[in-house]
């Protein structure tokens, strides 16, 4: 029994892999295990949202992921064979993010890229290695591991992170609640080759009474992913020929080949606490919900990044243990909101009644089409789907308001002359931004505290994005605003640090 890693990560899906990447980049030793012998090929997750790509810039992955996947610039809404609305994401998100699209990127390909990146950093995923049980001690965790071809092993780590999915062994052993329910509908996922879909490279959602299907293009050779539902069916015996084709036929497409087909039941649940001492729940182990909006995998990735910088700070003695409590506070609040939102949307889409059909197929498309003609509504819809509205305003780490930006907000993206303000965020560290002029006193404060102060020449675009001229924005390592200070007061910055024993050890005194 040897303490060879600071963090043991159980589960090598996107959540676990991203968690390992962010920890490793920050100098934390990790061990990643997974009970499967290889990544799952018939994967369900396809959508990579803009906020995920923004965060991928921190480890140099964004361009590779965007280049490998297929950017979907537009969503089309069809009702009973008629296209009723067209939602151009590229236009709506042009001033929001460098990635104004939904990226279609199959999870198996996504995982392969993450694994290659992790290998380049010297970390291998240990396959066919299962966590059988664990025992949490005051200052470490003992985990009993079983390899398929070897004896059991007892492994010691400072922390244990459960990224082991909806049926999490770790969550079950903790005995934590997983409140929620199960939809009566069975979801199906199919990878198909089709023809006749126009425009071919865009996303399409088709509604027909209580039937619906979403189509995401792979961007090559007519390959697409279909996601739909079947009511009151046995997922074990269901085949593609058994699903309703009303919505599919309404798109006017021909299914030429079904490469694979899978069914599953979907739950909507959130665990009661994401932290249990030295054990943490992330991704599907902590929350599961309807796939509406393509939010699930992206939410797990956000869990992983949120926790990674906090674990790093505590492990390096740069922050008190209390900092880890903010992981549960911040991420559980978002998970609850997401589950409620996706549940309402899914219930609306699949409700079975004449009135529900009338609202869904007659009223909603008209409202959506008209609303999207308004620029502000278009942008807000894109922000919600892309997760760029996610904020931690209620967090214990958030304070202040400068311009329209509050502590806990995502820093607005602004590009001027081909250069954007997200460049410095590639460093996983605390930093300060000033849009305008940073005073000598503020620069000296940054040097004294060991916090880089980045100064951007003021431009009208900064004001349009909600930033205040000459204010200071103190940014967390995960790029969210910790403190928005309108007067760029050094005293206010020090007061922020001193009032939060959670973070004061991080800074050079």
From TrEMBL:
InterPro entries registered for this protein in UniProt? FAD-bd (IPR002938), FAD/NAD-bd_sf (IPR036188), RIFMO-like (IPR050641)
**SUPFAM superfamilies on file:** FAD/NAD(P)-binding domain (SSF51905)
Residue ranges the record marks as coiled coil: none
Q: A Gene Ontology MF term for this entry?
A: FAD binding
Judging by the UniProt lineage, the source's domain of life is Bacteria
Q: Which key words tag this protein in UniProt?
A: FAD, Flavoprotein
Q: Where is the FAD-binding domain?
A: 5-341
Cofactors (names): FAD
What name goes with this protein? Answer: 2-polyprenyl-6-methoxyphenol hydroxylase-like FAD-dependent oxidoreductase
Q: Which organism is it from?
A: Pusillimonas noertemannii
